[in-house]
Amino acid sequence: MTNKIVVIGAGESGVGAAVLAKKQGFEVLVSDAGTIKKEYEDVLTKYEIRYEAGGHSADEILKADLVVKSPGVPDSAPLVVELRGKGIPVISEIEFAGRYSQAKTICITGSNGKTTTTMLTYHLLKAAGLNVGLAGNVGHSLAWQVAEKDFDYYVIELSSFQLDGMVEFKADVAMLLNITPDHLDRYDYQLQNYVDSKFRIIQNQTSDDVFIYGVDDPIIQEELKKREIPAQCLPFGWGETFENGAGIKGEELIINLGKKSFNMSIFDIALQGKHNTYNSMAAGLAGMVLNIRNEKIRESLTDFKGVEHRLERFLKVHGIEFINDSKATNVNSTWYALESLNKPIVWIAGGVDKGNDYSALTELVRDKVKAIVCLGTDNSKIKEAFDGIVPDIIETQDMQDAVRSAYYLAKNGETVLLSPACASFDLFENYEDRGRQFKTAVRSL
């Protein structure tokens, strides 16, 4: 029996894990190397959970029976290496929560589209009247929900970092949307390490479980040749329809599962653009697996409102549409954004470059972008990549300046798109902060 649990990191997932551990009767210490937000301090105080901030008491932490680690703390952190060296298990909050819940789990990962697909799947299950929680990278901490109000179902968005800390946890329905190089700095710059991490979504699955995957993705296709997968495999893709799976025929989205089938026009889907049709196929398949009626699936795919900061059509000012896609923190996400728009674009881009290769965007930028407004402390790579392709490239250092500059460059009937293709940490707290500042700046035009 594990008696002493240390939680490293006092954000949403860490505090949630601490609340669950306390409720399960463990001795708990929460340790954060930085500062702890007041709202989380208040929760720890309310539950009488010990915590420390501004550094770790290594001597005490190394006496733990179990450590729950925030996904933001890398496996290479010296304390984590030392813990593992001593044979002390280090797991994720999701792994910990899963030990105390009998709920059915629908788990979603991929390099792009996972938040939209997670929110859409949650919307679909909720509309169908299921008792469902939303967790992982979106919604509230899974552990916290298990502690306070356990649901019958959870729709869980999982990053590769969360998957890395999962050992016995099993997804009843696993979704792998796509794999493109991302976060390689955390995977020794080896793509295979990142791919292996994403495929952990299917670990521990049996023949009773379901694996939904994007069949058009070349990395997934290659990987499937190497693996034996016990779960029922349900592909979704653009070019064909499947006996069991989802596809497109002409202008119809078609889902088949056993004797059941579902179809609707792709033009009736609330979220337009090819990538969103993929997201809708994946969510629709999950709905079929859970025996949700066709009319509820159709209704949910038709009335879904989308995700804040993800291709969020925000406001029109003097005929210029402003779109907030701050969540696009990699090149692939920005590719989807540019691909889905048909009017001339003034593109606001830049931030912390994660080793980006912008060449994938060259053709789209040449065809659609009339000007680039760089927003970052170092914009040299963007300027270098698109010099000679886009006539106007200007540099800015804050959001208000970027929005004002884009507004002057755009004309009636054109689009200003914030889709940075980079992380936000040079000038902003996170992508949400960046998106909110964008919307504030647009409102003040």
TrEMBL record:
Pathway in which this enzyme or protein is active: Cell wall biogenesis; peptidoglycan biosynthesis
Keywords: ATP-binding, Cell cycle, Cell division, Cell shape, Cell wall biogenesis/degradation, Cytoplasm, Ligase, Nucleotide-binding, Peptidoglycan synthesis
EC number(s) reported in the record: 6.3.2.9
Sequence ranges assigned to domain Mur ligase C-terminal in this UniProt record: 309-422
Listed SUPFAM superfamilies: MurCD N-terminal domain, MurD-like peptide ligases, catalytic domain, MurD-like peptide ligases, peptide-binding domain
Compartments (UniProt record): Cytoplasm
Catalytic activity: UDP-N-acetyl-alpha-D-muramoyl-L-alanine + D-glutamate + ATP = UDP-N-acetyl-alpha-D-muramoyl-L-alanyl-D-glutamate + ADP + phosphate + H(+)
Role this protein plays: Cell wall formation. Catalyzes the addition of glutamate to the nucleotide precursor UDP-N-acetylmuramoyl-L-alanine (UMA).
Name listed for the protein in its UniProt record: UDP-N-acetylmuramoylalanine--D-glutamate ligase
Organism: Sunxiuqinia elliptica
